[in-house]
Structures are given as structure tokens and as C-alpha cells.
Design brief:
Low-confidence stretches: 14-18, 20-32
Oligomer: single chain
Helix content: 25-40%
Number of strands: 9
Radius of gyration: 26 Å
Largest sheet: 6 strands, mixed
Order of helices and strands: HEEHHEEEEHHHEEEHH
Length: 275
Amino acid sequence: MKKLVMFLAALVIVLALAGFFLLQWGKKENQQDPKLTFTEISAVKGNELKDSVFVNIVCATAGNPKMVAAINECISEKLGGTYTGSYLDAQAMADHYAAQRQKGQADDRKEFEDQPEDLQYYNAIKSQVLYETDKLVTIQFTEEGYSGGAHGWFTVEGVTLRKPDGRKLVTEDILLSPSRYAPDEDWAKVMNDDLKKCLDVEGKSDDELMDVLQLMNPEMGIPFPETEPYFTKDGLFFPYQQYEICSYAQGMPSFTIPYDKLGKYLNTTGKNLIK
């Protein structure tokens, strides 16, 4: 009888422990990934009166570990892809790229010996969280600089990453028929109308738009930007860089395919991102 009582007591304890662990496991399974947290990190190198470098970037500092690592690795790639330290040490990463850019400026100055000694070089790069949902996050990068010549330069790029695995999304990943040109007349109309606004020919014909562009093969139409598109609050954004399809004076045109028009162009991966 005593053995039976001991056996039943042990069985109750085992069942209680099993129930506790199952409850905790269920809670863990139902928990959503922790919200991504971003921190702004800065690094400055050089002499403000001669060679200046400014790195001002946002890095993921908390959240799904895969996503944190993917975002910071992507930021590193955009900055040059030469950082070999921990992606969790954002300050070390910023310091590394600031020093690398400072060295690049010094090398440029040596190469162009005919430039005035007091000519001020500078480089500034910034990243920010442009758009975030429960399914994706877009990081935008802007960079500007001057190293001699008539004027400086400026770029705008972005990258969209899928939660929670951190997959970097490019054109081939999300569009049904990725191409360098508009897939149909509806897309072409949105693209052309946006470009007309950017290039100050709004209300003009498509032929007049083509007249102000500087294309290598105008007979083929207007190509997509070399820079990958990225998701914004208004839709899928396509930015052209300086000189890409027009003169420096005409700026950096862009176009956006709004979400209410985007659906028919997306594959399943793309559609799942905007549901």
C-alpha cells in the first residue's frame, strides 16, 4: 500500500511538471517576435576645414536575432562591406567606415595633385528607417560628397528586408515578370506621369518627356533605375541617380507604383508582403 501511495504521488508530480512545461511552451509559441529597436550611431573623422567624413547610421539593437543580424549586415554592405567585427557592435562598425572613407579621401587628394591644397573634401552618409510594418522594414541610405570638380555628388538608395528572416528583397523576388522596362501600359502611364512631374514637363506628351531625357537607347523606352526599388508608405519606389537618365541640372527623378495598382505585378512573395 505504501509503495502504491508513493507511486501515485510521483505520478502526480510528473504530470504537474509536464503540464507546467507544456503551458510555458505554448506561451512561447504564441509570443510574437519582439519589436525591432533601432539606435542612431555617429562617427566623425578628419579636419572640418579640409577633409571631413560623417557617418550617421541607424542600426538594429534589439528584436528578432535573425532580423537584427540581417539589418546590420545589410547596412555594412551598403557602407562598403569591409567591416569584419561583430554586427552587434554598431559603433565599431561606424568608426570603421568613417576611417575607411577618410583614407579614401586622402588617396583621392594624392591622385589629383593639381587641385588646390586647401580644397575641402567631404563625405557624409546617413541611413534611416523609412518604412516599417509587421512584415517588412525599409532602410534608406543617402550619401553626398565632394572631391573636386564643378559640383559634388548625391545618391539615394534603399533596401527592404522581410520579417522575421531578414531576407533582402530585390526586383526578381517580388515581381511576376522582372524586366528593365515597364511591363504594360498601366505601369508606363504611372511611371511617365511621375517622371514628368519630376522633370517639370507635367501635362506634356510622352514624346516630349523622351525629348528631355538622356537615354542610351531611347527607341527601347525608359529603363528602370539601376538602383533596386524599395517599399515605402506610398508604394514601390524606384529612384534614379544623378546622370542616370537626365542631366545633373534636372536632378534625380523617381516614380512610385502605388499599392492599389501594384498587386497585379507582384508574385506570391510580393503579395504576402502587402496583405
